[in-house]
Amino acid sequence: MKRKLLLLALMGILLVPMVANNYMIRLATIMMLYCVLALSWNFIGGLTGYPSFATAAFFGLGAYAGAVCQGQGAPMYLAWILGALVAAIFATGLGLAILRLRGHYFAIASLVVADVLREIVNSTTNLTGGGMGFNLPILKLGVDAQAKLFYYLMFVLALLTVATAVLVDRHRLGFGLRCIKQNEDAANMIGVNATIYKTVAFILSAVFVGWAGAFYASWVNYIEPGDVFDVLYSVKPIVMVLLGRAGTISGPIIGAIVFLLMEELVWRNFLTFHAGVLGLIVVALILYLPDGVLALNFRRLLAWRKNG
Questions:
Q1: What count of other Cβ atoms lies within 10 Å of the Cβ of residue 71?
Q2: DSSP letter string, 35-70
Q3: Greatest pairwise CA separation for the chain in angstroms
Q4: Is-contact 61 88, C-beta < 8 A?
């Protein structure tokens, strides 16, 4: 039954560009992007228990790596791969440096990374365009064709992220990360190399985000430091995972969908102060649903069984 529902869902997703207008395709593309961000953060935050705020750094780094590569005349697909590789390599070095910290010390250390990278990009005007931004080569495609192309690209990337999450969950790596979350010292005692496991989780939290950043740069054709290094790219994935359920596979996906729907609904109805209204809604949901939306469904099922 689950396989049939999953197959129907995949078929529906593949058919979206055939029946939807460009506005709906754009929303669906953003939904795929949000799923990638949430699932990626879940590797380090949900499974390992390290509150990372480095997602914006990985996203912006992937976006600029891909953009600069295209600006130098490289094919677009190579630029996308480079964006993912640069984010992964950077995460390796950064992880070895700051994963020795724990709790709020780690959170603060990861939070400032995006600011440092933004300042570096701003100062390297000859290479990145600095504060003036960076214009990417415009694709020789129509508006409709380009919208469909990046929808499918984000969809494939989301599938790769989900597949990786499933593999990690079923692999010894997933078990080790959960042990680290419960008690890192005890995990080391039972043979889990916490340093390696944490670093791998940190790399996984970066590589798909950097890839998504490279896609995003080609999609919008123009990027600037304040956009791609925006701290919201670090905050939103955390909120999405909390809205779903941390440490699961379906939780971040559901959280990403719920967050996008709330974001779009609030933006439409409260244009002038939508950020404040959205923040209040998110805080209320987290306070009253500390275990996420999945827990709400479980409680309803239990109540239905008792009443039945």
A1: 17
A2: HHHHHHHIIIIIIS------HHHHHHHHHHHHHHHH
A3: 69
A4: no
Side chain identity, residue 169: D
Q: Which two tokens stand for residue 86?
A: 């640069």
Tell me the per-residue pLDDT of 231-289, one tens digit each, with 9 for 90 and over. Answer: 989 999 998 998 888 889 989 999 999 889 888 887 766 666 666 766 777 677 667 76
For tokens 């078929």, what's the residue?
11
For residues 134-156, one letter each, b for 16 or more C-beta atoms within 10 angstroms of the residue's C-beta and e for the rest, the string is bebeeeeeeeeebbbbbbbbbbe
CA–CA distance, 113 with 107 (Å, rounded to integer): 10
Which tokens belong to 76? Answer: 């677009």
Report the C-alpha gap between 118 and 182 in whole angstroms.
34
Write down the domain spans for the chain.
25-307
Beta carbons within 8 Å of 200's beta carbon, 6+ residues apart: 173
How does pLDDT run across 6-48, given as a tens digit for each residue?
677 777 777 778 888 888 999 999 999 999 999 999 999 999 9
pTM of the model: 0.90
Q: From 59, 90, 94, select the one nearest 214 (Cα to Cα).
A: 59
Query: Considering Cα of 155, then 157, then 161, then 167, what sign does the dihedral take?
Result: positive
Helices (H), the chain: 2-19, 22-41, 55-71, 76-98, 103-123, 125-128, 143-170, 172-182, 184-189, 194-220, 225-228, 232-243, 250-269, 274-288, 293-307
**Residue 171 to residue 167: CA distance in whole angstroms:** 6
Q: What would the two tokens of residue 173 be?
A: 């790596």
What is the Cα 260 distance to its own chain's centre?
A: 13
